[in-house]
Amino acid sequence: MAKIGVFICHCGENIAAKVDCTKLAAALGEHPGVAVSVEYKYFCSDPGQESVKKAIRDNNLSGIVIAACSPRMHEATFRKACAEAGLNPYLCEIANIREQCSWVHTDGDMATAKAMDIVRSMVEKVKRNNKLQSIEVPVTRRALVIGGGIAGLQAALDIANAGQEVVLVEREPSLGGHMAQLSETFPTLDCSQCIMTPRMVETAQHPKIRLLTYAEVESVDGYIGNFKVKIRMKSRYVDMNTCTGCGDCMTKCPAKKISSEFDCGLGKRTAIYTPFAQSVPNIPVIDKASCIYFKNGKCKMCQKSCQLNSINFEMQDEFIDLEIGAIVVATGFQVQNTAVYGEYGYGKFPDVITGLQFERLASASGPTAGKILRPSDGKEPENVVFIQCAGSRDPSKGVRYCSKICCMYTAKHAMLYAHKVHGGKTHIFYMDIRAAGKGYDEFTRRAIEEDEASYVRGRVSKVWQENGKLMVRGVDTLLGKPVTVAADMVVLATAMVSQPNAKEFAKTIGIAYDEYGFYNEAHLKLRPVESSTAGVFLAGACQSPKDIPDSVAQASASASKVLALFSKEKLEREPVIAVNNEATCAGCWGCVLACPYNAIEKKDIRDRSGRLIKQVAYVNPGLCQGCGTCVTFCRSNSLDLAGFTEKQIFAEVMGL
Amino acid sequence: MITQEKYRTTVKELLASGSVKMVIGYKPGSTPDRRRPLFIRTSEEADQLVLDSTCMTNLSGYLVTEGLLSDEKRVGIFLRPEGIRSINILAAEYQLNIEQIVILGFDSTGRDVRPLEGRNAGDFSGLLSEIKEKPVQTSKEPLLERIEKMNAQERFDFWQEEFSRCIKCYACRQACPMCYCRRCIVDSNQPQWINTSSHTLGNFEWNIVRAFHLSGRCVQCGNCDRACPVNIPLRLINQRMATEVLDGFDHFAGLSPTQEPVLASFKKDDTETFIL
Prior knowledge:
The complex is a heterodimer. By secondary structure, chain A is α/β, with parallel strands linked by helices.
């Protein structure tokens, strides 16, 4: 016999202003099976919860309905209260009479009538609720960090320093990511490599970190606490165990004219190469596409020069299978291809460069050893024009969003230029200066006041070449006049975009992404570092454009989430999972295909002598996320979802 | 007649060589224009085989009879192109092993019956693709056209009228090769989603659920249509759903034994015209 308790919450005025709670409580008191029906101002408060617990104990209730706000708000609160009162927490249901009733209706009488329907429907459901036990799944205490930029390094170090194992996967031959390419960093102007390389070395030497460079994540299966990850170790053609990184091979390599990715095309590298001098690990790889031996079958100069016999042209890609408990995705960003803007002349005029290229020019380890020299003739530019928002905040051609870092790095570029080229002139075309951050506004002011950066508020319409100069035509919107500046070099503050394969990769890991290919967080404000998939966390610019402090902060936040997950031996999961009726299952495997989590497998049904009678679907409780897709697909209604069974839903519908 | 004689010989040869344990075909029925299924195990039984233009029934449903194929021996079966599509779907839904099926294909125009080339499902893939590109006209077309011209209310009234005759005998389900579930949703009464009594609501529930369960699976063999004792033009509903699935997902049911079920699979290039 059902003894249901109904608790109607006023939510202050939120519900009570529209719904007549007294009338509602009285009406529900009359409903069959309802033993207690009471109202209260705030059931979520301490005394409110105590009264619920007391009612459960005093009346020996078999289930309760809290008529209040959305279950997203307080379902966990009241389930806990239930458990404390000795009632199975899954015998508690929330009837949402706030978001779905009082907030959206103006007529009080009708809102009250609707609230009655909603609560009655939940009473009918809770009568058919089953006692469910939360599911425990073991946790593999090993984290996978994807990406060896600053965000990935920070996350890996934080997790490893807390004593947990980390596997760090980087697809490039060296750690470092974009930060290693930068010259000096805002707002303190400390040398990027000086603060980055110690981190890289620390990571490589950390006893808890297994470093896999020149490696890519091939597939991810499994679920939170129990991922199975396959890593492809791309063949370096250099034996990592014997190579000492002496660099003889690189000096001997005759293919020297290959455009360096690390120097953004401003420098050259060999076919056997490390991306930069401080590479970690300092072990070269052979770029198969440029290597003379791989192209013509002759050369092997590197192999001859190597005294340790480390070079092996027969090397093949290898695969490593890993058991992983949590994943931190820190795959970073790319800069937009600014060639889409014909008016800026990028790709046409060699002296129109991107911000990242300017970083390489200004970097002490760069192709010009830190001297600002223009790419066309190697001369020092006397007048540099910077164009901000060259791609960002432009729905027509570029991207709609703000790339966040460009205001700051353009100010920094102007400063670096002023420091390195005395007497040089800078013009910065901008839309707004967005310098929100600790020490950021002071920094841009310093660029203007101390380093004489000349800011022009307006857009640039055209860049063309005239008498060896780059003519920049724009508008000064504050003066309301068109301006033309004769420049020696133009630097575009290119938009930050997602990695070209970001969407494909998101599908590999099974996380959600936005229209731009940036990875979606579970909740923009309250769960900013969790992805939509349990056990997968986000760090750095793969989620949205970020500067270094933000990337590092998010990486540490992700690490703390991973550590929280690893703090327990077993994970508790909601027991809302699909269950198959093996007697009626027809074995069509539609559910297997339909399941987005690969949670359904085929199970053999055998007789006593071991003969196969039939195969049926089996839902792995550890993998099932309780989405219910299989339930809707199953034609014979063999699949049912615990907590939302057909019986419960039917009763809910009939209770309306 | 020539085709029938030829096929009688083929059946005898197949049985004699032991390459099939049984052949499912047609024999005379209670009236000259009706045919019954015939299960041929011996050479003598093969003499009863009839093959003419009145052999309309899609026999593929008999293949999923419990235990028939579990000994892994092969079974021959007379199938029209729709029937071949049916067994492709049954294979795709893991209800039978396509390797075990020997197809004796035929088709008819007017009163003429002609054999179809091939014995294995794969042999007919070209033919099926052709049918996908050039659908065969059916005799019910005019009615379908009339219904499609109706507005929503008229259409609702039309089907209400048609369904009012439904007596919930489930002959359509029994006749359909796709309805192989061990327990049909209408046999489940905890909860009873579909009302068992033959009133408007229950009749709508049953027929609409059936239409959805057959979306992307119906091959328009007409078994349900012919089985219906009260002559509800059931095939039209499924035909309409087939058109929707073809337009929406370029899915032509039963094209191959490995085709993924349209409602359980996801393709990146689905047109998704239904998403506003």
